[in-house]
Amino acid sequence: MRLSFQCRMGTLLFLCLLLTCTTTGAVAAQRPQAEKFQEQLQRALDLGSQSPPTPQIISEIRLIFIDLERQVRDKGRNQGFFEFFKEVVEQPTPYDGTIDSLVKWLRFLSVAGDGRIDLMTEELVIPCERVLKHPNLKNVSEPVFGSSMDLYFPNTDCAKFRKQIPQSLIRYAQFIDQFSGDYGRDGTIRFAHARSNALTWDRIALFPNELSPTPQAKDCRYPLEKWALMSPWNWQKFQKSKTLFQQAERDMTRYYQAHHHMMQGKAKQAARKALWAQAFEGQWDEITCLNNSLRHALLTRQPAAQIIQKITDGTYQLDEWEKGLPTFNPQHPNTSIWFYSKKQDPLLHFAVFHTDMLAYVLEQNIVSQQTNEIGKTALMTAAQFDKKEALRLLLEKGANPNVTTRHTTEDLRFNARTALMYAAENASQETVDLLVQYGANAGAKDSEGRTVQDYAQRNSQPIDLSTHQAR
After folding, report:
1. Would you say which domain of life the source belongs to (predicted)?
2. pLDDT for 206-222, tens place per residue?
3. What is the distance between the alpha carbons of residues 258 and 207, in angstroms, rounded to a whole number?
């Protein structure tokens, strides 16, 4: 017997309602369990953050943790999870009444109860007022997995106390961040990076005594010192970072005097720690500082006679650019500042800033077409930084003005750039004219089809290319 349309629709509606009720009932049954789990965890936090917990409270908290772990196992967490957690983090031992023990259990149960078993309905947030009373509580959010699992750890609301941090430190941190190589910004590791960065800010704002000691002043005055010697462009950015560092150091010194009641000397030390912590997230075991190198001597325009004497006696090596700096691991957070620039620019690029020494170096039969990793020549560097005398010296030595940068695996916006493009964007009319005089092609285009005129439009001063006949 065939059912009528109305009957079939009625049957379908009944089945849908039955399925909906069944699903809703299952969810409703699950929700009270999850709410109870979270309430018990919150109670353990409330009791454990009393100072100090009594033996009765310790016993109650132990029972809570035993029950919560049982619930996790009953919900399907297999032994593999517990072995994994023990290996990566640390399986907590029986609660002993200390804050550190409380932190371990809060971390363990928050991760164990989250994810697929859904016993954690929302993030466990610890009020910062309690963190100020028990500083080790902030360690609940310390990332270890390098993935989205780090978000399962509890958190604090200490961010509300960062509003008093001077803006100069924030500006410095944002400036430095440009050169991080985007470490920690891609993939699931970004979650761990965000947690780690938040903890660094909390230590700066509230717990400066926990920041790592800075390098000795005799070794390292500013962050990025060795990075600064990778290229003239790096050196230019380093000068800007120093200015920002000095302003932030003054402001942070006053901040610690006012908010942490430190004497000026101690406040200044804390300020330096804060600045270094922002530059490298408090890690610099592989970072070294400005050394007694030929590149540094050229960039700081030390007397030519003095530099030549050191070349003669072997202190400086003209071929030192071949040796370069130590190889840095771009995956290591301590060295992420070198992520996109693993080798120094050739020595000739630095000599552009010291005309007397450029002439001397060229006399030593060092070819004028030495390029860096992206194919950039010393002539391009001279054009970019408007070094007219150096530009003329290189052109007279036969430097080709129409050589282009090359495509690399780096995330560069423009390739196939010429010295004239660098000059049009950054230098003076005189430098542009000089390059064209020596045969630079005013009609060249980069890999994106941008012309020399397109680059000239970015220059802060007017550049007239109308008199130059494009070849």
Report:
1. Bacteria
2. 999 998 776 654 456 78
3. 14
Q: pLDDT (tens digit, 9 = 90+) per residue, 411-465?
A: 555 588 999 999 999 999 999 999 999 999 999 999 889 999 999 999 999 999 8
Q: pTM value? A: 0.79
Listed in sequence order, the residues at least 6 apart from 250 whose beta carbon sits closer than 8 Å to its beta carbon are 168, 271
Q: Could you tell me the residue range of the domain that residue 447 belongs to?
A: 294-456
Question: Does residue 121 share a domain with residue 14?
Answer: yes
Tokens representing residue 358 in the block: 């450029």
- Are 191 and 304 in a shared domain? no
User: Cα(280)–Cα(195) distance, rounded to whole angstroms?
Assistant: 15
Amino acid at 224: L
Residue 464 within a domain: no
452 shares a domain with 307? yes
**Residue 334: what residue type?**
N
Rounded distance between C-alpha atoms, residue 389 and residue 431, angstroms: 10
CATH number of the domain to which 342 belongs: 1.25.40.20
